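Quick review question:
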């Protein structure tokens, strides 16, 4: 794991979190956004010598693991050829209002990560890092063996790719719950019991403004046994 290059597509809330966590874990990071590497100079300077910025194609090509941290609806802009053969962590979520209507997703005929996998022949797509909000994600990272370590769900059909993602998540501070194949990623999509809400509780006293209440809420670790129960609650 120590030499794996982490490519991050998207430098917003989640992309920044993942870059920060990976850099802190000593992993080389290359990050891209829609505006080009010039827009990322300050961010990668903060992260130090192991971090750099590139174009989307450049970041994907240099990476061993690619984290998708951009709106789901931007998938069509990503370069299919470069993604082929890559291990990809799909941290995106499908929200029709933001991402546009895709009937098979809106109707639940497939999952969002299966849909993406179907767009990119040869890509080794694993669902992960999609179900914790960007404020709690860095707050919940813990060293291996910590009793307060949170387990994050992963799902994927490619066992070897999934093992690489499990090792990556371990390196940045998380245990994992293997949900099974990509189709089982339905258990960690929006509005499921393991999506976002178990990972925080209101501060005391809670802020009146809903956004401030969200920001100031306290992180709640979700260890493996609890993650398993939450994922199982989605049902067959
Ligand atoms: N926010 C959360 O708490 C959270 C938690 C888990 C998962 N997620 C999921 O993670 C994804 C990103 O969420 P976010 O909150 O980080 O979004 P965000 O803050 O809006 O950041 C989105 C990033 O994607 C980049 N981007 C958009 N289109 C692109 C393209 N065609 N090529 C390259 N980069 C592109 C943007 O580039 P520019 O900077 O150049 O505009 C921006 O850096 C979403 O699918 C979301 O559902 C979010």
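Suggested answer, residue by residue:
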């Amino acid at each position: 794991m120590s030499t794996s290059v982490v490519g991050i597509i998207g430098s917003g809330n989640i992309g920044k979190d993942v870059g920060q966590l990976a850099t802190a874990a000593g992993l080389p990071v290359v990050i891209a956004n829609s505006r080009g590497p010039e827009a990322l100079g300050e961010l990668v300077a903060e992260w130090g010598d192991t971090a750099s910025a590139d174009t989307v194609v450049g970041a994907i090509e240099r990476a061993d693991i690619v984290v998708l941290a951009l709106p789901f609806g931007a998938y069509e802009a990503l370069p299919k050829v470069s993604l082929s053969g890559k291990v990809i962590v799909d941290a995106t979520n499908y929200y029709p209002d933001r991402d546009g209507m895709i009937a098979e997703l809106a109707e639940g005929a497939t999952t969002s990560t299966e849909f993406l996998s179907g767009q990119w022949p040869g890509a080794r797509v694993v669902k992960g890092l999609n179900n914790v909000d960007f404020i709690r994600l860095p707050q919940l990272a813990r060293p291996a063996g910590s009793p307060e370590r949170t387990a994050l769900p992963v799902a994927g059909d490619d066992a070897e790719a999934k093992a690489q993602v499990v090792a990556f998540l371990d390196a940045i501070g998380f245990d994992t719950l293997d949900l099974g194949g990509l189709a089982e990623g339905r258990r960690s999509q929006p509005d499921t019991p393991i999506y976002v809400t178990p990972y925080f509780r209101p501060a005391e006293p809670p802020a009146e403004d809903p956004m401030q209440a969200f920001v100031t809420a306290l992180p709640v670790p979700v260890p493996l046994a609890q993650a398993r129960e939450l994922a199982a609650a989605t049902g067959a």
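Why it works: The pocket of NAP is lined by residues 9-15, 32-35, 56, 69-72, 74, 77, 91-93, 130, 133-134 (CB under 6 Å). The chain has one domain: 6-232.
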